[in-house]
């Protein structure tokens, strides 16, 4: 099982889109610890959206869609309702 997740920075409302084969809650903890430069500068985060997929390929396709212009528009609509 793979999860595509969207995080929102409490600090500045920026979004982060990723996928993981781990528990998305475990991944959230890692991001909030600041495991890379971008998350370190924008933490803390909350999860605003997640979706589970049975294959890594499906999860990567969804992640790439959410990172595209059309996907960002989709998230704007989804998260503002």
The average pLDDT score comes to 95
Strand content: 25-35%
Total number of beta strands: 3
CATH topology: GIY-YIG endonuclease
CATH superfamily: GIY-YIG endonuclease
Uncertain residue segments: none
> How would the global form be characterised?
globular
Total domain units: 1
Radius of gyration: 12 Å
**Spatial arrangement of strands, main beta sheet:** 2-1-3
Count of separate DSSP helical elements: 4
Order of helices and strands: EEHHEHH
Distance between the termini: 28 Å
Q: Mind telling me which CATH architecture this is?
A: 3-Layer(aba) Sandwich
Largest sheet: 3 strands, antiparallel
Topology:
Blueprint: E1 2-9, E2 15-20, H1 24-33, H2 37-42, E3 45-53, H3 56-67, H4 69-80
Antiparallel strand pairs: 1-2, 1-3
């Amino acid at each position: 099982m793979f999860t595509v997740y969207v995080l929102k920075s409490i600090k500045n409302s920026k979004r982060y889109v990723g996928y993981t084969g781990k528990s998305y809650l475990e991944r959230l903890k890692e991001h909030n610890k600041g495991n890379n430069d971008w998350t370190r500068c924008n933490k803390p985060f909350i999860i605003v959206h997640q979706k589970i997929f049975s294959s890594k390929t499906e999860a990567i396709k969804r992640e790439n869609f959410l990172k595209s212009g059309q996907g960002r528009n989709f998230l704007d609509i989804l998260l503002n309702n």
